[in-house]
Amino acid sequence: MKKSIHKKNKKVSISVPAIRRLPQYLSFFKSVNNGENSFVTALEIATALHVDPTQITKDLSGINVKGKTKVGYEIKELINVIESFLGYQIKRKAFVIGAGNLGTALMKFNEFHLEGMEIIKGFDIITEKTGKEINNIKIFSIDTIEEHFDKTPVDIGIITVPANETQKIANILIKNNIKVIWNFSTMPISAPTDIIVENTCIDSSLAMIKWKLNKNMPLIYKNRII
Amino acid sequence: MKKSIHKKNKKVSISVPAIRRLPQYLSFFKSVNNGENSFVTALEIATALHVDPTQITKDLSGINVKGKTKVGYEIKELINVIESFLGYQIKRKAFVIGAGNLGTALMKFNEFHLEGMEIIKGFDIITEKTGKEINNIKIFSIDTIEEHFDKTPVDIGIITVPANETQKIANILIKNNIKVIWNFSTMPISAPTDIIVENTCIDSSLAMIKWKLNKNMPLIYKNRII
Fold first, then answer.
1. What is the pLDDT, as a whole number, of residue A12?
2. B202-214 and A16-32 helices, crossing angle to 10°
3. How many contacts (CB atoms, under 8 Å) link A and B?
4. Which residue of B194, B209, B215, B224 is the best one to mutate when testing the A interface, meaning the one whose CB has the most A CBs within 10 A?
5. How far is Cα A95 from Cα A142, in angstroms, rounded to an integer?
6. N vs C: which end of chain B shows fewer Cβ within 10 Å?
7. Using an 8 Å Cβ cutoff, are A99 and A165 in contact?
8. Where are the alpha helices (DSSP H) in A33-141?
C-alpha cells in the first residue's frame, strides 16, 4: 500500500544544504502531525517554511520519499524517514570539553538524546568545576581525558573552550581517535581529513547581523572610510 | 605612514562567507597580537586557519586592508579595522525571548558586549522564571513585552523558544518594529523583507554530523533502504 511512497532501493542523492534543512522539516512535520493518516502537500510545507515548493519536492525525493497525487506526503512517514535518515536510532556518545555557559547549555539539551547523541561526560580546565554534575553529566579534569577515552569509545568531541585553547583540545581529541569534532569556538581547527569537523560559530551569526544593521552607516577607522 | 595599508575611500566589496569568517580572523589576530609593531603574512594566517592564502588576501582587501611587501599585515591594525567593520563600537540593544538553557547561556556571554550587542532584558512564558535575574539581566513575562519595547527601542530580538512557539514570538517582535530576528529555533520564521533574519540552528549541525557518521551504514525504514 505504501510502496508508491518509496522508490525501492533508489540511491540516495541529497545536497549538503538539504541535509541541514532536514531538522527544520522535522520540526514542522512534528508540529502538524495529527496521527496515522494526516497528509501534507509540498505547497503547504513550502508556505509554512517560506521556501520554494520545488525545493521541498527535490529535498524529499533526495531522501527517497515521494508524495501521492492530490493528498501529498504522509506526515508520520516523513517523520520516520527523516529520523531514520539522520540516524536518530543510532546512538553516538559524546564528550563536552569546556563546561562554561555554552557547554553547560549543551549538556542540558535533552533533545540530543532523541537525536541520537548522548553526552556522557564533561571536561574542564578549571578545577572548581570538576567533580560537579550538570544534568547528571559529571565534569572531569581535562588532564584525565585519556583514561576516559580508554574506558568508553566516544565518537563525538564537542569543543566549547575559548579560542586560544581550541587547537590544543582538538589535538587531544585527535590523539584519542575521535571521529567527529564539533567546534563551537571562533577559532578554526586543523585536523586530519578522515576526521569530521563541524563548526558552529555563534559569533559569525552576530558578525552578519551587525554588518547588515550597520551597512548604511559610514564605518570610519583613522579618519578613513572602510 | 600607514597610508599604504588602506586604499583611501575605496568602496568596500566583501562576500557574505567572508563576513562570516571575520570573527575567526579576529580570534586568530588577537591570539598572536604582541603589540604595536607585530606583523603577520597572508601565508601565516592561511596556515593557522587552514585556508588558501588567496582567500585571506581577497577577504582582507574586501575590508580595504592591504599588506605591505615582505612584512605583511600589521596585526593591531587588522584587529581595529575588523572591529570597526563589524561595528563593535556601535552598541545595539537586544531582548532574549526564551530563558531556557540556550537563552541563559546567551545572557551569560559577556563577549557580546565587546562585539557591540547588549542583552538588556529576557522574557519567558514560564511564570516561575519571571522576576529572576541571569547575569544581571532581569527576566519578564512575555505578556509584558510590548511595554518594554515602548520604554527602550531595541534592535535585536533573540528567539530561543521551542519550535512550535517560534512564529508566535516572531510576530510579536515584528509588531514592535524589531530590526533583527536572531532565530536559534529549528523552525524557520516568516518576516517582512525589511527585517534581518539570522538563523543559527544547532540541530542542523548535528544533522550533518550524524549523516556523515552514518553514511556508510545501511539506513533502513520498513525493510527498505533509504
1. 60
2. 120
3. 233
4. B209
5. 11
6. N
7. no
8. 42-49, 53-62, 75-85, 101-108, 111-114
| Location of each CATH 3.40.50.720 domain in chain A | 92-206
- The H-or-E segment that residue B121 falls in is strand B117-124
CATH, domain A16-85, list 1.10.10.10, 3.40.640.10, 3.40.190.10, 1.20.120.1200: 1.10.10.10
Residues of A in contact with B24 (CB under 8 A): 186-188, 201, 204
Residues of chain B with CATH 1.10.10.10: 16-85
- Give me the residue label for grid cell 500500500: A1
Which contiguous run of DSSP H or E holds residue B40?
A: strand B39-40
Confidence of residue A37 (pLDDT cuts 50, 70, 90): confident
User: Residue A30: closest CA among chain B residues belongs to which residue?
Assistant: B164
Task: Check: CB of residue B47 under 8 Å from CB of residue B78.
Answer: no
CA distance B124 to chain A (A): 17
* Chain B residues within an 8 Å CB radius of A52: none
For chain B, 226 residues long, give each residue's pLDDT as a single digit of tens.
Answer: 333 344 444 555 788 999 999 999 999 999 888 877 799 999 999 998 888 999 999 999 999 888 888 899 999 999 999 999 998 999 999 999 999 999 999 999 999 999 999 999 999 999 899 999 999 999 999 999 999 999 998 999 999 999 989 999 999 999 999 999 999 999 999 999 999 999 999 999 999 999 999 876 665 656 565 5
Q: Which amino acid does the sequence have at A61?
A: S
Q: From chain A, pick out residues whose CB is under 8 angstroms from the CB of B2.
A: 222
Q: A128 in contact with B at a CB cutoff of 8 Å?
A: no
Query: Strand runs (DSSP E) across chain A, as ranges?
Result: 39-40, 73-74, 92-97, 117-124, 133-134, 137-141, 156-159, 180-183, 196-199, 220-221, 224-225
**Cβ contact, residue pair B222, A90, below 8 Å:** no
The answer to whether the CB atoms of A81 and B226 lie below 8 A apart is: yes
Q: Does domain A92-206 have CATH number 3.40.50.720?
A: yes
Residue A146 pLDDT greater than 90, yes or no: yes
Gap between the Cα atoms of A127 and B99, Å rounded: 28
**What's the CA gap between A121 and A142, in Å, rounded?**
11
Segment 186-205 of chain A within 8 Å of chain B by CB:
186-190, 196, 198, 200-205
In order of A7, A94, B168, B169, the CA distances from B174 in angstroms are 43, 38, 10, 9
Residue pLDDT, tens place only, A91-137: 999 999 999 999 999 999 999 999 999 999 999 999 899 999 999 99
